[in-house]
Specification:
2 copies of one chain form a homodimer. Chain A is of the alpha+beta class. Helix content of chain A is about 30%, strand content about 30%. Chain A starts with a helix and ends in a 5-residue tail after the last strand. At the A-B interface, β2, β5 and β6 of A face β2, β5 and β6 of B. Chain A binds a DNA duplex (25 and 25 nucleotides) through α4.
DNA sequence: CTGTGTGCAAACACTTTGCAGGTGT
DNA sequence: ACACCTGCAAAGTGTTTGCACACAG
């Protein structure tokens, strides 16, 4: 039994081809994938809408998280901590987008530094996106 | 002569009603505005397309910068440093989005802390978005 | 007068919703 | 058997492009 099947079982989701394939796509890439990345990669096998719904399901369950990818597009990446659930997500790592190859990776090893907000502000969630050149393109 | 007219002159842009009104909208709000915010605020006076083009012109000239506003929407805010030009933008302040009122503000007083990327990564630009509750909503 | 800005129409990209039928458990 | 998942159609939203006319300099 592969990782995808295990994951689906673990989160009480039904085993379907689309879900397995999407999970496999994420586990076999180290970078974040957008909806259209998935569409290209999975070919014509699944409907655009089904992919949207599957992504939404995974985000709701705490399997994937949305990644800020410069202004505009939405990408998704696996939640690698156990701190994400259907209740809420908790991410404090940095996202790095390579301006050459366009890939966005989660740099789990770097935690977002704590900053002191001015009086009156309450922090709930912090996102940090670094853009530049990745080791592969350098 | 008001601020908007001065700004347009300074950047060698023609004086038009749309440009003045959009600049005035930004100088009279302390938070970032989206295209639809502007549409609502300016009423029916200008075409949707003209607003898009005006925003693009201002970003190109270094008058406005795009603000990452959670995943999805694009907002714009005034460039308050002199480090932005038609050549390139340079922002290192934190953006704060209030999850209650939905407003996004530039917190100019807080600079994004420097982080050390792993070997091989080259940093070009950094964006930081903090979400939580602003003083007004607290 | 000339080049740029604007409005209108249309195309395009992205995402969501409703419904009928198919599938996992 | 039943609830849930999928595909298809369609609509909603956000953004860009082409073209003709209007207007600032």
């Amino acid at each position: 039994m592969n990782i995808a099947r295990n994951t689906l079982k673990e989160y009480s989701l039904r085993q379907t081809g689309c879900r397995e394939d999407i999970l496999n796509a994420f586990t076999s890439h180290e970078y974040a994938l957008s909806h259209s990345d998935l569409e290209n990669q999975l070919g014509e096998r699944f409907d655009r809408v089904t992919i949207y719904r599957t992504l939404k399901t995974f985000v709701d369950k705490g399997i994937l998280h949305k990644v800020l990818d410069d202004v505009g597009g939405t990408k998704y990446a696996l939640c690698r901590t156990s701190e994400c659930s259907h209740e809420e997500h908790h991410h404090d790592h940095v996202h790095f987008k390579c301006t050459t190859c366009g890939n966005t990776t989660c740099i789990e090893s770097i935690h977002i530094p704590t900053i002191n907000l001015p009086q009156g502000y309450v922090r709930k969630e912090v996102n940090m996106l670094v853009q530049g050149v990745c080791p592969n393109c350098n």
